[in-house]
Amino acid sequence: MPPRSSSPSSGLTAWLLIAAVIVLADQFTKILIIGSFQLGDVHPVTGFFNLVRAHNFGAAFSFLHGASGWQRWFFLGLGLAAAAFIVWMLRRHGHQKLFAWALTLILGGALGNVIDRAIHGYVVDFIQVHAGGWYFPAFNVADSAITIGAILLILDELRRVRRT
């Protein structure tokens, strides 16, 4: 948990360090997958979980995956703009713990995927969940952080509404 401090910049530093840990975990796992799997490889782990290597040229759920290439730069720019906005929000609202955790998870995830787009031109996905012949689109640590952050944002807003 980031330390309490009267200085906004020291609180921001703690949140940014947490986001950096998320980015490092994301990139480390992707390096392991790239080094161990060929594109399209599937390795069952359990009856509902596989490790795979997939490349997503689009966004969530492969949105715009098949576009002509412009989406790489669009999503890269969007991710950087979102990161800048989130840092600004953390600077102003870092004392609101649940809200700041949500933003920090989203920031770490967004930057993890931005790095992929900048280096590879696509995002490396490797977690595949399935049941009864239904397969959820492959995802990664960054996507997981973004999803958990979004859930925390919703919970934070529900708490805020309930207080008013």
TrEMBL record:
Catalytic activity: Release of signal peptides from bacterial membrane prolipoproteins. Hydrolyzes -Xaa-Yaa-Zaa-|-(S,diacylglyceryl)Cys-, in which Xaa is hydrophobic (preferably Leu), and Yaa (Ala or Ser) and Zaa (Gly or Ala) have small, neutral side chains
PROSITE patterns: SPASE_II
Pathway: Protein modification; lipoprotein biosynthesis (signal peptide cleavage)
Enzyme's top EC category: hydrolase
Compartments where located: Cell membrane
Any GO MF annotation of the entry: aspartic-type endopeptidase activity
Source organism, top-level taxon: Bacteria
The protein's Enzyme Commission number: 3.4.23.36
Biological function: This protein specifically catalyzes the removal of signal peptides from prolipoproteins.
The protein, known as: Lipoprotein signal peptidase
Gene: lspA
